[in-house]
Write a structure and sequence with these properties.
- By secondary structure, this protein is mostly beta strands.
- 3% of the residues lie in helices and 62% in strands.
- The protein is built from three helices and 32 strands.
- The protein has helices at 454-457, 547-553, 556-564, and strands spanning 2-8, 23-33, 39-58, 66-68, 75-77, 82-101, 107-128, 139-144, 152-158, 161-183, 188-211, 221-226, 234-237, 248-250, 259-262, 265-280, 286-303, 306-311, 319-321, 327-330, 341-343, 354-358, 364-384, 387-409, 413-436, 439-450, 461-465, 493-497, 505-519, 522-545, 570-594, 607-619.
- The strands form four sheets. It has an eight-stranded mixed beta barrel with strand order 24-25-26-29-30-31-28-27.
- Strand 10 and strand 11 (188-211) form a beta hairpin.
- The longest helix is centred in the last third of the chain and has 9 residues, at 556-564.
């Protein structure tokens, strides 16, 4: 039985009034067995809370985001820096347990399970100051400093955007496994293994906007930026953004929204079954065989769940005073110097303060994979011309069925289901030669595959009309004219999204190594490796006949247009595709050294590890490097 607890104190100033500064961790475990030693069990639980507080400065200084003061010649920022304070609190409860049953020397069964419930809650409160050269009304006043980047810059007539961004996620993970093995005879062993895991996760990225007035009509400000060499700039303002009589809920930029919310919902389920037989063979070359089958079934569902936040009925002329019962105080921005009002926007989504409008680019998809893998391997334990040889050779045969159901967007929204079926034969071999006592040469070759990312396999696709070629003057998603159609420069239609026909990443690996063991804790190894890579996935531009997608949109006038102009059904695509090949070649050296022979006896056990790796890689269509 083990119990422990820890409390974490932090010396941060509390930047947001609604988040704790300190954290804790509680842990307990129990391991036990019955009197006969045939049944054993363990149980462990952890409860923890970890707070994080920091300031966030995002000064933009890339090309096009800075300007030069014509009077001083100094460089100053001319794009929006997002600045504020962030508080996060990560809370987790985890429970893990195992039950092991071994009634005799031939049979053993283990059941283990894991559950965790996490909540990662956070908030950003700060400003987006529209000091950009393109911002409406803002006027650059001047800089000061000696050379290079300005020490200070001043802007007036600034409409300041206040942001309260609720960020975080909740997740539940459950996994259970059952493993049983039975020694049928001295030579034959059978093993069965079943595993299941599930993930349910809900994210939130909720933006609530405030300012001095709607669409830049409120009081403007003069902002002075002081730039330190370490990037920790400070901001001086003329307005008090902690004053509820100055700040209102509004759309400061006149964008048509008072916020935005994205609440992705993710569900992931994986089931796997493995059956295996292992047979020891009394043979001068082959010492045994191992073979079996693995069946894997996975389904992942994703919904980006995105909505524009519009002003509710209580807004007057696009503005609403912040409800006093939702005001928590103000932020402590530290050396940023620009504190803002702190309010809790959570109830605004349910009490009518805000209304939601579904975003047209909302993404929903389901991806399913069924993989059946047959495998067999022969173990080698022999000698060649008096040199001991051991290792294995074998193969995997994978049969894959993949499919995805998702939205096809264009002229509306409808579902489509796409997929593919493939098979792969994957041989491998590993041989080790003990050329002299404690000196080994190892050789290995193998073909492997790695599944593509599930979001790349998703069937969510968007069809767009190129209005320069196929003008859609009335917005009914039916081209009215066709002018200058050429591929791939001027298509009538573009289509982008995921690709459910993707194949896995593939590689063929060759490895040679030399290993010398000087003692139980001292060894030197040098390995050379080379990998041939193929079917690497990258987003590519291509052409594709999308007659099927255009027909499924279900607009008769569009079908008639395509029938009269069949060439326009060949569209320019932007999909992830298996287009890249490449190589990785390198060398790795490792020294594990005991210092017992070189240090006084009281330092027995001291030593060191040292390693060096060099790799040269290249991938067509991607960046190569060392």
């Amino acid at each position: 039985l083990n119990l422990s607890g820890k409390h974490v104190f932090t010396d941060h100033d509390q930047p947001n009034p609604d988040f704790d500064e300190d954290g804790y961790r509680l842990f307990g475990s129990l391991i036990d067995q019955n009197a006969d030693g045939t049944i054993g069990w363990s149980l462990a639980a952890t409860v923890q809370s970890n707070p994080t507080q920091f300031t966030s400065r995002e000064l933009k200084t890339n090309s096009g985001q800075t300007s030069i003061d014509p009077l001083t010649g100094l460089v100053y920022p001319s794009d929006n820096p997002r600045t504020g304070v962030v508080s996060r609190e990560f809370e987790r409860t985890s429970v893990a347990g195992a039950l092991q049953f071994e009634p005799n020397d031939r049979w053993q069964t283990t059941i283990d399970a894991f559950y965790t419930d996490t909540e990662d809650a956070g908030i950003f409160r700060g400003v987006e100051t529209p000091i950009a050269s393109w911002a409406q009304g803002v006027q650059f006043q001047g800089t000061s400093g000696t050379s290079g980047f300005a020490d200070a810059a001043t802007y007036n007539n600034v409409t300041t955007f206040l942001r309260t961004d609720t960020e975080g996620n909740t997740a539940e993970i459950f996994a259970i496994g059952v493993n049983t093995s039975y020694q049928v005879s001295d030579r034959l062993k059978l093993t069965g293994d079943y595993a299941r895991s599930t993930l349910d996760r809900n994210d939130i990225d909720y933006e609530s906007y405030a300012g001095t007035g709607f669409g830049g009509t409120g009081p403007t400000d003069t902002l002075g930026f002081g730039f330190d060499d370490d990037g920790e700039y400070a901001i001086a303002s003329g307005l008090d953004y902690t004053d509820p009589s100055v700040v209102v809920l509004t759309d400061p930029g006149g964008w048509g929204q008072v916020g935005f919310i994205k609440e992705p919902i993710i569900e992931d389920e994986l089931n796997q079954l493995r059956l295996e037989a292992e047979y020891d063979l009394d043979h001068s070359v082959i010492s045994g065989f191992k073979g079996g089958v693995i069946y894997t079934d996975r389904e992942k569902t994703f919904d980006s769940n995105e909505n524009f936040i519009r002003a509710g009925a209580s807004f007057v002329n696009g503005e609403l005073p912040i409800p006093t019962n939702r005001i928590l105080g103000s932020t402590n921005s530290g050396n940023i110097g620009l504190d803002i009002i702190a309010y809790d926007p959570s109830s605004f989504l349910t009490d009518g303060t805000y209304t939601l409008e579904k975003a047209t680019f909302d993404t929903e998809w389901v991806v399913e994979e069924e993989i059946t893998t047959f495998y067999a391997m022969a173990e080698i334990d022999s000698s060649f011309n008096g040199v001991p040889v051991f290792g294995n050779f074998g193969f995997q045969y994978q049969d894959v069925d993949q499919s995805s159901t998702a939205n096809l967007q264009g002229g509306g929204e409808r579902q489509q289901t796409l997929g593919a079926s493939e098979s792969y034969f994957l041989p491998s071999a590993n041989l080790s030669f003990e050329v002299t006592p404690d000196t080994f040469l190892r050789f290995a070759v193998a073909q492997t595959v790695t599944r593509p990312r599930l979001d790349n396999l998703a069937a969510n696709q968007t069809v767009q009309i190129n209005n320069q070629v196929c003008a859609d003057t009335d917005g009914d998603f039916v081209p009215d004219t066709l002018n200058g159609f050429t591929l791939p420069i001027n298509p009538c239609f573009n289509i982008s999204g995921g690709n459910p026909q993707l194949e896995p990443y593939q590689s063929t690996s060759f490895d040679v190594s030399y290993e010398k063991y000087f003692g139980p804790t001292t060894a030197l190894s040098v390995a050379v490796f080379h990998k041939e890579l193929s079917d690497w996935v990258e987003t590519a531009t291509d052409t594709l006949d999308i007659t099927e997608q255009l027909t499924s949109i279900g607009i008769p006038a569009l079908d008639a247009f395509v029938a009269a102009n069949p060439q326009v059904a060949t569209a320019v695509t932007s999909f992830p595709e298996n287009i890249s090949d490449g190589t990785i070649t390198g060398i790795e050296a490792t020294l594990r050294m005991s210092l017992d022979d070189y240090l006084p006896e009281q330092f027995e056990g001291f030593g060191f590890n040292a390693s060096y790796t060099y790799a040269d890689s290249s991938l067509s269509g991607a960046i190569s490097g060392d």
